[in-house]
């Protein structure tokens, strides 16, 4: 076994090997390579003199697609291996083939590039030079790279977000796998390339820097996986060679080919040597990297190790599937991080899935089974789901492993509110209870009482009753739906179990079991028709696929055809059982009522209506009566031809009940006679039936209000009315009032919209077509008038939650919707609307004096309803215009009276930073910064302005801005035109200009106003920021000087942390010694001590710490 071969304590890999690369190509197959065994061995063992190494090869073209050791992309530029892998646009195999050609020409140059590839993939900006490669040890190189690591950010390629890094990890791993695969026939045995790479990765994996440790561990584990695959292929070839040798040797002497025997012996010897070398490499990686990093402090690193060891055990089980390796997975199942525990379970699933490996897992299963069972209750739902799935595989491989107690701990999870956990538990339950068939069951019918499904349905009922969670039948059905839908949809067998008499020797269902079966049947029908989990599981309804919709329609058709016939019979049999009848009466709401007509099932409909009538007359329980009411409501659908038939039956039933109620009430309220209990019971029973139907049906034609009024009035006068009668009389009166209000509301709304709605809509549409600007000004003016009327009624201090204010705000929302979705068409109108609204809000000062909000400030809350219609860049412009009316004190206010201003500012700032069309100011530092990042040096130079654009800045006063501008055409380009910076007088400013298309366009006054507001505000904000920035830093520096101990006093604690877990966090099952000698650097953004110690004395000069943008903004 590989594990038995211990790594020597003084084992180290040579930095430079003197062996010469085999002349055989790395791409030739194994047979061809062994055919040249003599040549290959001679070359492999040959040595170069010290002066010959790499001689005459540096700088030459390494191979096709490479120039000076770099990959050439499209013949235009040279890319490093890191850049090629990062971009992911080149085929990995072609990149690796190019590198192999380069390695054959000059292995030092190629290997140096590979080393720098791993360094760059770690996020290090430094590079290993050829001088460093020749004269420095790996530890010295790593120390040097650590010092040159970019400390401005803790991110590195494996952790960076964004589309360009999305596929980096997969490309990185693929490159390593392809590299080993393409080198597996010669290069990996040259005692140079693999030794150097493994030595480098082992050193990096023990680095203090997390980025180095994470990246190198991933690389080492993927390298190990690739080597395991090579070892597996070698093992297979050795077995094949051995069989060929045995077959040849067993031939008779006359037929035996001695030359072939010698070739086979030599081939087996070569394969054995290669196998030994590969095992040495794998042992080096396992002992040098895995054993230390599987218990790293970083969960991601631990997860990588466990994931890969699972791959090794599954891929090469003969070498790795033993307790020496399984123990690491078992120990790590106690990890504190869910993602690591999850990797353990997924690794084990791949092993238990293969039944041939079960015998090798027996000891591990007995040792860690209890831990796996306990993980079904893991706090991380993903871990719990995978633990249940693993137990399902264990159950599938051997039933004797799990005890009844183990199984019961999983059974109850079918009632979990978390659906993935419940579904996994449902699959476990189905495998345990339902998936076993004996030979005698093969000949059983598919449907009916004697079918196999009938027995399984009984088992489901027994489990449901034994679980003692009867109110969660819908949860049980949903848990088993994915794996046992065929069983749960066998409604024919369910009906047979309920209606048919048991066969001789068959035990009939008890009353309790029949009730449970009806509930499960109802839940299955609901699941089939609604196609979504019950309440409490899932986020709501989802969009069904075409296949799911077809299945839904087919199931609904089957349900209707089957239960249209069976439901009357079921109701007749169980008519006196309230619980059973309540569930059965819910079935018609899932029927396709058209089938009653197309299937000629009208006689069964009549039978159903008769049974419902009998149920109403027999029962007084509100649950049963309400179920009957809802059934009539479902059947009384005017879209179907059965409506008249059902409506007549409903009317007849209600006529009888109302007449009976009036007759009983008259006798009940007779003066001078005290009603007995029997009369009270009759009145109460009839009143219950009427109340239950009035909930879902409009019974206004029977004038029930008069009867209930008499009943309640008599109770008030006499005071001896039974409590239940009063309750149901009040409830019935409540329904009477609700139905009346619904009619009045519906009639009023319908009359208003019929008489005026179309006229108003058409008027607004025509107005908008004639002039969008004037239409917007009209809308804002109407809102202002309503606001003024509200102030005159409620006063200047009013509640913004009042009906009047909310009504105006709702009207503003409706006005906003009339502008449609095309923001470019309404851009100018919306901007003018905001401008007028802002001016109105600040028009009148507060009547309460200075320091209080303006009189109309609350109008900004109404105006915010239109903020969503502004383009992103226009939001910024409007926000700048708003700040013209604000004082510095206003911006600091947080009282409730200032909330309209705060909410309006927030509505303008939402999404305003990521402008899609830039209008750059000549003096804005933010604009300048954006230009530097997005433009080439040529583009950032001064350009000539287009014809027709004046150099003078244009500012509009508020009177000019009120003019009606022309509709602005949407800009065709998003580029900008820059101007030279110029000092502004208080009354001057500069205006950014849109770059025009070939056809000259003229700015409208509205656009000019918007651009001008942006320029002036940005200039003002720039000066304020510079002043505040300087004042803040000056305060901080004075504080530091007063302390007298310099800046280092806050940094007494070390900036490194222990990579290994603390003694309290160690896994309980770890029984090996651990070394806690590795430190972790998370690369904080602040300067480290080494850099701070080199600061010059003039650091406290304010001018030396201000960046260029602040210096330019602050006038010294």
UniProtKB/TrEMBL annotation:
It is found in: Nucleus; Chromosome; Chromosome, Centromere. One of its GO terms (cellular component) is nucleus. Residues 56-66 have a biased composition (Gly residues). Keywords: Cell cycle, Cell division, Chromosome, Chromosome partition, Coiled coil, Nucleus. GO terms for biological process: cell division; chromosome segregation; sister chromatid cohesion. Component of cohesin complex, a complex required for the cohesion of sister chromatids after DNA replication. The cohesin complex apparently forms a large proteinaceous ring within which sister chromatids can be trapped. At anaphase, the complex is cleaved and dissociates from chromatin, allowing sister chromatids to segregate. The gene is stag2a. GO terms for molecular function: chromatin binding. It comes from Denticeps clupeoides (denticle herring). This is Cohesin subunit SA. The keyword Cell division applies.
């Amino acid at each position: 076994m590989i594990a038995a071969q211990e790594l020597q304590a003084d084992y180290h890999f040579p930095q430079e090997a003197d062996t010469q690369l085999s002349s055989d190509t790395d791409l030739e197959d194994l047979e061809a390579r062994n055919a040249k065994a003599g040549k290959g061995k001679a070359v492999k063992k040959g040595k170069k003199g010290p002066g010959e190494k790499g001689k005459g090869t540096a700088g030459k073209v390494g191979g096709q697609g490479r120039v000076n050791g770099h990959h050439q992309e499209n013949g235009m530029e040279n890319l490093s291996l890191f850049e090629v892998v990062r971009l992911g646009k080149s085929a990995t195999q072609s990149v690796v083939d190019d590198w192999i050609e380069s390695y054959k020409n000059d292995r030092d140059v190629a290997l140096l590039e590979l080393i720098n590839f791993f360094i760059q993939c770690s996020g290090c900006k430094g590079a290993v030079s050829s001088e460093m490669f020749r004269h420095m040890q790996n530890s010295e190189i790593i120390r040097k790279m650590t010092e040159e690591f970019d400390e401005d950010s803790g991110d590195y390629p494996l952790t960076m977000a964004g589309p360009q890094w999305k596929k980096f990890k997969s490309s990185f791993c693929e490159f390593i796998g392809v590299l080993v695969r393409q080198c597996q026939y010669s290069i990996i045995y040259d005692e140079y390339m693999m030794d150097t790479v493994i030595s480098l990765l082992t050193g990096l994996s023990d680095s203090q820097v997390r980025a180095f440790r994470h990246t190198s561990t991933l690389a080492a584990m993927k390298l190990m996986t690739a080597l395991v695959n090579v070892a597996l292929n070698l093992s297979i070839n050795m077995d094949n060679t051995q069989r060929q040798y045995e077959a040849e040797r067993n031939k008779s002497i006359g037929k035996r080919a001695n030359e072939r025997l010698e070739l086979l012996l030599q081939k087996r010897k070569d394969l054995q040597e290669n196998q030994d070398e590969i095992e040495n490499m794998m042992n080096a990686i396992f002992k040098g990297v895995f054993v230390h990093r599987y218990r790293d402090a970083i969960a991601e690193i631990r997860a990588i190790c466990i994931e890969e060891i699972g791959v090794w055990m599954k891929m090469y089980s003969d070498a790795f599937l033993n307790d020496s390796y399984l123990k690491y997975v078992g120990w790590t199942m106690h990890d504190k991080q869910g993602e690591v525990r999850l990797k353990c379970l997924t690794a084990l699933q791949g092993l238990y899935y293969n039944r041939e490996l079960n015998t090798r897992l027996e000891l591990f299963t007995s040792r860690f089974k209890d831990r796996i069972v306990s993980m079904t209750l893991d706090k991380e739902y993903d871990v719990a789901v995978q633990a249940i799935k693993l137990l399902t595989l264990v159950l599938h491989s051997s039933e004797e492993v799990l005890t009844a107690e183990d199984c019961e701990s999983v059974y109850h999870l079918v009632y979990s509110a978390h659906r993935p956990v419940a579904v996994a538990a449902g699959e476990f339950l189905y495998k345990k209870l339902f998936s076993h068939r004996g030979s005698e069951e093969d000949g059983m019918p598919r449907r009916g009482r004697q079918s196999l499904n009938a027995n399984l349905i009984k088992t489901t009922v027994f489990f449901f009753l034994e679980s003692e969670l009867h109110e969660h039948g819908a949860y049980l059905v949903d848990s088993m739906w994915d794996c046992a839908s065929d069983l749960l949809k066998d409604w024919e067998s369910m009906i047979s179990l309920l209606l048919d008499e048991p066969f001789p020797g068959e035990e009939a269902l008890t009353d309790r079991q029949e009730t449970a079966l009806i509930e499960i049947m109802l839940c299955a029908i609901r699941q089939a028709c609604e196609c979504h989990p019950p309440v409490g599981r899932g986020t709501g309804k989802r969009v069904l696929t075409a296949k799911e919709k077809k299945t839904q329609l087919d199931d609904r058709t089957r349900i209707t055809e089957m239960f249209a016939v069976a439901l009357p019979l079921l109701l007749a049999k169980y008519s006196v059982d309230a619980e059973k009848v309540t569930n059965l009466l819910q079935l018609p709401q899932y029927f396709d009522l058209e089938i009653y007509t197309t299937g000629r099932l009208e006689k069964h409909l009549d039978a159903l209506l008769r049974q419902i009538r009998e149920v109403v007359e027999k029962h007084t329980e509100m649950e049963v009566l309400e179920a009957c009411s809802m059934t009539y409501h479902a059947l009384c659908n005017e879209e179907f031809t059965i409506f008249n038939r059902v409506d007549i039956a409903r009317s007849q039933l209600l006529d009888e009940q109302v007449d009976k109620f009036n007759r009983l009430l008259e006798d009940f309220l007779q003066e001078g006679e005290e009603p007995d209990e029997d009369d009270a019971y009759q009145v109460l029973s009839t009143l219950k039936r009427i109340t239950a139907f009035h909930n879902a049906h409009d019974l206004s034609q029977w004038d029930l209000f008069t009867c209930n009024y008499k009943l309640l009035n008599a109770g008030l006068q006499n005071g001896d009315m039974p409590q239940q009668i009063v309750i149901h009389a009040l409830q019935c009166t409540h329904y009477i009032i609700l139905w009346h209000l619904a009619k009045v509301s519906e009639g009023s709304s319908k009359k208003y919209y019929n008489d005026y709605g179309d006229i108003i809509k058409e008027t607004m549409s025509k107005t908008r077509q004639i002039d969008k600007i004037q239409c917007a000004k009209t809308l804002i003016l109407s809102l202002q008038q309503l606001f003024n009327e509200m102030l005159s009624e409620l006063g200047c201090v009013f509640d913004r939650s009042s009906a009047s204010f909310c009504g105006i705000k709702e009207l503003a929302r409706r006005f906003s919707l009339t502008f449609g979705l095309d923001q470019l068409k309404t851009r100018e109108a919306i901007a003018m609307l905001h401008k007028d609204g802002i001016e109105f809000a600040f028009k009148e000062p507060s009547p309460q004096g200075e320091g209080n909000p303006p009189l109309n400030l609350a109008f900004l809350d109404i105006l915010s309803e239109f903020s969503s219609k502004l383009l992103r860049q226009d939001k910024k412009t409007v926000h700048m215009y708003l700040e013209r009316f604000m004082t510095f004190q206003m911006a600091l206010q947080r009282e409730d009276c200032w909330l309209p201003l705060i909410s309006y500012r927030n509505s303008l700032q939402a999404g305003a930073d990521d402008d899609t069309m830039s209008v750059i100011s000549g003096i804005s530092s933010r604009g300048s910064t954006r230009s530097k990042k997005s433009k080439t040096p040529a583009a950032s130079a001064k350009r000539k302005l287009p014809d027709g654009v004046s150099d003078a800045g244009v500012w509009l006063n508020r009177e000019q801005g009120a003019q009606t501008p022309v509709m602005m055409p949407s800009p065709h380009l998003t580029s900008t035109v820059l101007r030279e910076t110029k000092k502004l007088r208080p009354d001057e400013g500069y205006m950014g200009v849109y770059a025009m298309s070939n056809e000259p366009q003229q700015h409208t006054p509205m656009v000019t106003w918007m651009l001008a507001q942006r320029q002036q505000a940005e200039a003002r904000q720039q000066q304020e920021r510079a002043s505040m920035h300087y004042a803040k830093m000056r305060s901080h520096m004075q504080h530091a000087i007063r302390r007298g101990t310099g800046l280092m006093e806050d940094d007494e604690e070390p900036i490194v942390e222990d990579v290994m877990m603390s003694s309290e966090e160690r896994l309980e099952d770890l029984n090996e010694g651990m070394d806690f000698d590795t430190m972790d650097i998370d690369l904080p953004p602040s300067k480290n001590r080494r850099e701070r110690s080199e600061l010059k004395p003039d650091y406290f000069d304010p001018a030396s710490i201000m960046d260029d943008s602040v210096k330019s903004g602050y006038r010294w």
